[in-house]
């Protein structure tokens, strides 16, 4: 199965999953079992599946054949090169290829001058008016190729402007942007490009990130802080004729490779092996030379040789377009595609499976508990009414008094429930006192003031360290509040289950550990790129302060925003079963009392009421069976591995 076929299978699996959840939501509505909170959670889950994206990033220096590799893997079926690919620099700015059905096919280009502002690329994505839009005529390959050349455009500016926009200049060989005789510097015209193109893979949720070398990575920290770390796969492209150059090694060590082992989804591609196809050498000699070059790259990057994939992207593209199976095998691209699909798709499916299964299982368990609670209450009524057969009016009065007493005891026990709600509210306020954005805003403000007023490098360094220490401490304290809330809800779930027979199960667990790890990652990046003695001595205080808040603090805020959203969802989810069961139990007690009253007042015959309740019981049993069937069917979809038979027996 090729990568494209594997991804199509994954997309089909995701569609089946969405269909099953939509069916569950409709069934709840038809059976009058849904409530606002349950419906909201299902809508959010469906929205998450609809917006699910698979991000694959390609990273390389100029002239490594990166754009040709993207064409060969993803767009050969289009019959020509989608991305421009020729000698020299073809992609001058980071480029995202994706599809958004709400917008027409186009190329959106963010001017390079926007680097002068304090906003990152993600901020500018909210303001579409800042982007220049070039329409794409998808019916004309020639017109599309012409439009796509915009990503290669450059502009000429004076040296001061180039430096200000983040492009180092000079005459040394190591400098990418040189000052010409007229005093001007040639730099990229665009800061970022988004190509909105209705290709089948892009329609299914694939997003391709094309990054043009060390210069773009160095001047756009959002790439290394957010886009690359969040990519599900990163392909680092080298050239077989040059091996690992110094700039390649810098990119690998600083932005992609990980210390002490292999990071999932990170692959090294040794491209242009056709340059080693010497007609004067045998196939064995050529293979040995390719293997030697791959071994050298593996040694330099400190990787197992099996993680280096020698390919010829250009020959693979030609082979696919001309349907030349022999040339495709010689290009070795199928081995890379197989490795990518075997690692990327299952890992992505596992993430979606786990998050969906957790949410669905909780909702399914709640609905099962609700139906069983109704069934239990109904059967208690049936038992009580059946025991009244042949009994005199005094026995009926006694039974009515017994149910009334049970109802009063439950309502007095509700005081404990209301007390729990009060404590729950207090703990929630304490949680958001640490986790909330107000606390982070105050920390950011105080850190900025300290850095602006700093007179020594040590003060700047200490302020950055304190920012992370306090952020981490806030998460740690928040985790403590979460633990306390969890312990309280476990105790009250258990108490109400024992005393009143409520079917509450176990409260949904929650942790902020993923956000603690994100803060750790951001601090490591900061310590490697900003909070170093070299950076502190080489950059002005105001420049360093600006970089810290534009590049690092904004990412910390994003992590806290996500943590707040997840915590709010969890708090609603943990209280909802309690609220539902308490309300349901009150209704059942009221119905039991009303039934016996009607028998006592002779406004209803005993046998008619028993018959009516028996009919309702049959309906509830059918609902339980239907719910179980929905659960089995959806879990069957969840447990099915893409491209393989079911993972395990759904039963």
Task: Break the fold down into its secondary structure elements and pairings.
Layout: H1 3-30, H2 36-50, E1 54-60, H3 66-74, E2 95-98, E3 106-111, H4 121-124, E4 132-135, H5 141-148, E5 154-158, H6 159-164, E6 169-170, E7 177-178, E8 184-188, E9 190-196, H7 200-203, E10 206-212, H8 213-219, H9 221-227, E11 233-239, H10 246-256, E12 266-271, H11 283-301, E13 308-310, H12 313-322, H13 325-331, H14 333-387, H15 393-435, H16 437-453, H17 457-500, H18 513-529, H19 533-538, H20 541-600, H21 606-638
Parallel strand pairs: 1-10, 1-11, 2-9, 6-7, 11-12, 12-13
Antiparallel strand pairs: 2-10, 3-4, 3-9, 5-8
Helix pairs in contact: 1-2, 1-14, 1-21, 2-14, 3-12, 12-13, 14-20, 14-21, 15-16, 15-17, 15-20, 16-17, 16-20, 17-18, 17-20, 18-20
Features:
Rossmann fold; two-stranded antiparallel sheet; nine-stranded mixed beta sheet; 21 helices; 651 residues; single chain; 63% helix; disordered C terminus; alpha/beta
Task: Describe this protein's structure.
With about 650 residues, the protein is α/β, with parallel strands linked by helices. Among the domains are: about 55-155 and about 190-330, P-loop containing nucleotide triphosphate hydrolases (Rossmann fold, 3-Layer(aba) Sandwich), CATH 3.40.50.300; about 155-190, no CATH class; about 395-510 and about 565-605, no CATH class. Helices cover about 65% and strands about 10% of the residues. It has helices at about 5-30, 35-50, 65-75, 120-125, 140-150, 160-165, 200-205, 215-220, 220-225, 245-255, 285-300, 315-320, 325-330, 335-385, 395-435, 435-455, 455-500, 515-530, 535-540, 540-600, 605-640; strands at about 55-60, 95-100, 105-110, 130-135, 155-160, 170, 175-180, 185-190, 190-195, 205-210, 235-240, 265-270, 310. It has a nine-stranded mixed beta sheet, with helices on both faces. Helix 14 packs antiparallel against helix 21 and helix 17 packs parallel to helix 20 (about 540-600). The longest helix is centred in the C-terminal third of the chain and has 60 residues, at about 540-600. It is elongated. It starts with a helix and ends in a 13-residue tail after the last helix. Residues about 645-650 have low confidence and may be disordered.
